Amino acid sequence: MASPGDHKASEISLNHVEIPIHANGVNPKSISQNVEDTIKIDYSQRAQWLRAAVLGANDGLISVASLMMGVGAVNENITAMLLVGFAGLIAGASSMSIGEFVSVYTQYDIEKSQIKRDKAKNNCRVVDEAQREKLPKPFQAALASALAFSVGAVVPLLAAAFIRNHKIMLAVVVAVSSVALLVFGSIGAVLGKTCVTKSCARVLTGGWIAMTLTFGLTKIFGFAGL
């Protein structure tokens, strides 16, 4: 028969048992890794506004630069080039903003309807607020597109605003636009954590093609007297 002292000693020993973390198969490194994973940025959540911003900036830059190159191909009037560029800025920013708003609002309606169907299917239980937070934001996308387009479009306009030589202006527009395209491509890649080299090459090549086609075709039409 065990004595009361033995029971007491057994109780004390049980209270002082230390269980190593590794004994349960838990690695401290894995714990810290899991913590890091929970605070990692979900770059897919940036896709909506990042796409609108990068697309708007590139479109603004390429559109206005190409318009100025096209007019400059057949008309040496510097004022005409600047006016066309400014008109392209206003028209393009409005078009991008309205188009993005309509597009994103359509997506918003579709996803909101899906949430309502899910709510009804789950016997009217409260839908997770995270779902509502992930809904696309039409006004935000429209504003981002308009601002981004304007920022891109201003670049060739500012570059040519104080130049009065026709040929020099064309060269400056191409050079400054090329540098800006590289910058926009780099920003988009860094924010989206993608390859900077590929992004810059893709954006720059597209811009050169657009400006070359506009200049060349306008020049041909000018020679044809159209």
TrEMBL record:
GO cellular component: vacuolar membrane
Top-level lineage group: Eukaryota
Record keywords, A-Z: Ion transport, Iron, Iron transport, Membrane, Transmembrane, Transmembrane helix, Transport, Vacuole
Main localization, broad class: membrane
Pfam families, A to Z: VIT1
Protein's cellular compartments: Vacuole membrane
Catalytic reaction list: Fe(2+)(in) = Fe(2+)(out)
Keyword Transmembrane in annotation: yes
Sample GO molecular function, one term: iron ion transmembrane transporter activity
Keyword Transport: yes
Positions of transmembrane segments: 49-74, 80-106, 141-162, 168-191, 203-224
Entry membrane topology: Multi-pass membrane protein
Function, in words: Vacuolar Fe(2+) uptake transporter.
Similarity-based family: Belongs to the CCC1 family.
Name this polypeptide is given: Vacuolar iron transporter
